[in-house]
Amino acid sequence: MAGSGTAHMRNTVDSVLTVRDLTVEFRVAKDKIVKAVSGLSFDVVRGETLAIVGESGCGKTTLARAVLQLPPPNAGEVVLNGTDLTLLPKENLRSARTSMQMIFQDPISSLDPRMTVHQLIDEPLEIWDRGNRAERDERINKLLQSVGLEPELVLNRRSYEFSGGQCQRISIARALALDPRMLICDEPVSALDVSIQAQILNLLLHMKETFGLTMVFISHDLAVVKAISTRVMVMYLGKICEVAPPDVLYAKPAHHYTRALLNSVPIPDPTKQIRTELLQGEPPSPMNPPSGCRFRTRCVGASALCAEQEPQLREVSPGQFVACHHPIV
Ligand code: SF4
Fold this sequence. Notes:
Layout: E1 15-29, E2 32-45, E3 49-53, H1 60-67, E4 75-80, E5 83-84, H2 90-97, E6 100-103, H3 117-127, H4 133-146, H5 151-154, H6 164-175, E7 182-186, H7 194-211, E8 214-219, H8 222-228, E9 231-236, E10 239-244, H9 246-251, H10 256-263, H11 304-308, E11 314-317, E12 320-322
Parallel strand pairs: 3-8, 3-9, 6-7, 7-8
Antiparallel strand pairs: 1-2, 1-4, 4-5, 9-10, 10-12, 11-12
Helix pairs in contact: 3-6, 4-6, 6-7
The chain binds iron/sulfur cluster.
């Protein structure tokens, strides 16, 4: 069993995406290799929202990009609707990728400022020859309406004329143009004002229901994830720490890193007791991760075993999987 194990894999026919033993490494100098994602496996079942959580630099975005083959991983399988994307020739890969779209963190810079909103949404439809001019225009109007924008007010304007929240609505409309089955959202609200974040999260939930989507939602913010996910996967330094339904994970985290992350979420009530296990220090370099459990240099529960053996994921309560020699529950 490689990496952090596969006990959490469901191996069901309902899996839209199955990732096995995915490894992404970058050479940054002659003798320096960043181990961004190390032998990681997970699956996403039709209709669910898998949240991938961790501090910045834990490999979440690299993982998402490797799933989309942007660039392809160094090793591992990425099976989308039964097809292993890592084995596809370039042209077939482009076509397969239309069923899996990504929404990026910075909505303003992810949209080409030279293009009008009409051109931005029309581009994928035109490239993939989806309908004639009238049919495409009708689709563009419907997409804009579905994300809460008035077509006649926005079609001929450019991205720099809109707020961050409006740009994210345009990005969502563009991502849905080709009717994908899966959306990968990479920190889609973290660049937005707090007042706008809830609107975009609600919109994503609404679009998920309307378009029958399956979602992967990447975030460093556990509070955001709680509202939107059906399963949460916690990552640390390119490995999985814990996988669980959100209500279980928030009520009874089993991994010391998950508990420390939860304790880092600010408490609005000053009368509440200060939480004890907080995240100390910075993560070690992914060029030289610790032996055994990668979290051991920051873990209050670490033992000698944690330095010697890498913990493998195992089920500690129904649906809750943890990679820890000394879990909390
Ligand atoms: S395996 Fe050891 S170091 Fe890692 S989280 Fe568990 S107790 Fe801490």
